[in-house]
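#random but structural
TW: two for the price of one
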Amino acid sequence: MRSLILVCLLVSATMAAVQAQAPAGWKLRIDQSTSPSDPDAAGSVKFTTSGAGLHAVNPQAATYWSPANRATGAYSLKANFTLLEPSNHTNYYGLVFGASGLDGAQQRYTYFMVAQDGTWLLKQRMGENTPTVARGASAAVKKPDASGKSTNVVEVRVAADKVDFVVNGTTVHSAPKSGALASTDGIYGLRVNHALNVQIDQLGVAKL
């Protein structure tokens, strides 16, 4: 019990320290690296409005959400992600859906992301556990061009019996709406891992 209380206090302190950096109505939660071989960069996470969209500069990994953003039933969740400069190694960015408890130790969500090397990743978050559901590579995932930028439209399509994971209009993975994907109702948002500089535009949900 004492350990759980300590975790909750640390989460609350971290959340309070960074909320002032988020656009109005948004929250963020930082996940600091615990890997000596893959440390975080120096500096603080910056999450701001940029034009009609959002801009995330992430020395550390972070999850971003607005409690008002919820999706239920059959829906399409989509956003346009522009990687503004290559990371110094493979790191993922993308969508969070079916989320709950994001403020606390019992956070839970599923996230679908892409990376600059042309791969995609589907994972779950259950407290501090992050099991991989599926992963792969696809020519649909755009890599940085000569300018160092790449733009990918990342989408999750939730139907009554299946969930499709789509990049730039191409379905890269499809799975039954059961097991790890049985729960898709909840808050939606964004996940940007460390060492990334990403612009996010046109984040939204449409009923299917």
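TW: number two ↓
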Amino acid sequence: MPLAHANGIHLAYELDGDPGGTPMVLVMGLGMPLVFWPDALVDALAERGFRLLRVDNRDCGHSSRITGRGPVNLPAAIARGLLGLPVQAPYRLADMADDTAGLLDALGIARAHLVGVSMGGMIAQTVAARHPARVASLVSIMSSSGNRRVALARPRALRALLSRPRDTSDADAVIAHMMGVFGIIGSPRYPIDPALLRRSCERVIARGYYPAGTARQLLAIVASGDRRRELARITAPTLVIHGRDDPLVRVAAGEDTARNIRGAKLLVIDGMGHDLPPAVTPQIVDAITRHCQEAESAERTPKAA
């Protein structure tokens, strides 16, 4: 298990693909360690020539756990966030973005394509805004700008996100809970085979299930608030991908994200929810690859005087 010291903490990571390939960072979403990236997607991107860097975000997997100020009152924090009131948190998305930039420093990677899903998309957006020289291109999947007018989840999906297993020490109970959550927020047209989803959940448990860290990550999202002004500073070529049937981060949030990043392109996938089902993997891989190639080609093309 490789570890790197970055931004004052330790981050666990994995490298896949040709060591000489084009660097690409894959940033996972809320509470999910790097092993939750679907193997089919990772393998397909590696076959396209990318050198893939996956990371356990802080408070997740094998990376550093950040001590908070006692139990997190998420409903109260979310209510304050929806009202536009300040929310206190041990860290924010900016800190998690600086973790990613610090990991690139630690591994000697000057510049990379960034692909983030859900919270990982928010982190990737923030890296692009705060560290523009490090980002060759940005792909934000099923994510948002923090605009509370468009980011509100459907009630059933939000209840699922905030729910807890009946016994967090019972692996089977945790797996059943996770599968139930993804049954609610997942893709209605492309349900994932239960055996495949169970194996993915088992890998998460083996890597480290840490609900306290997940709560702090969610608090970081809420405390970071509306980031539209920050998104307006992004100069990296950007592709926004969103499922039309996402009940957790509605498609309006993806549209809003693309609208607030200069020159961003938007790909809306019918039938896709808040997950990465195998049925849409080829479309996503093709879109990411094409976007990265176009960004590299544009960079090589001399600009007119």
